[in-house]
Amino acid sequence: MPGRLFDDHQEIHAISTQFRHNDQIRISPIRLINDKEEQVGVITTAEALRMAREAGLDLVEVAPTARPPVCRIMDYGKWRYQQQKKEDKSRANSRGGRLKQLNIDTVRIGEHDLLIKINHAREFLKEGNKVQFTLRFKGREMAHLDLGRNLLNKVKQELFMVSKVERDAKMEGRRMTLVLQPDHKSAGAVMPKSFLVGAPRPPAPMTAGAGMNIPNRPAPAPGSAPAPRPVTAGAVAPAAQAPRPAAVVAAPPQPQPVGQ
Asked: What is the pTM of this model?
């Protein structure tokens, strides 16, 4: 149906958003659809223009290849604005959802260079993309990992309003990576203290012997004897200690009688 061609915005958008309208329509007669989406029928172009002007709207040729052409009474400027918004949104969605990588070659990067990378990341996040910062350490910079964490904390602080942390700063060889994903926050959002430059790292849990799968021994009850150690297979039990023999004390020599 000629009328459905215009009702389906996607089909019209695929053809064009530029249509002859008002005095640009030279052919007559035309098939008219009024502003209430009702089929008026085949009338002259002059009559259709008069009806459009009385309604304060435009006469738009929406199906120029039909015979006779199909025209519709509508607000042409408003329709084109709506189509432009849909096109911009579709373009933004097609660009979004990707992982953008930004490399920082040294912890001694200048403030201006870092600000440029942060601004690029902000644009990527607004388009709906994820951003991965990769900080490389060179030579003796490996002894100053805290400088790298402070630098990435500054990145998180600058991008807090448009992002959230998907994967926090993590060392991988000689590189430290940080992954942010889009998240548009309200004006009253509170920044976590961990984002501040120089924030102390949380203490690492005690993991000594964790890889040996040694179960924890229960604490003995008060007043009870300590539990004996289990003897593993193949182990030799210690021999029972025999009582030590008493020391042999030599008798003192007897005095010899004098004159014998």
From this structure: 0.43
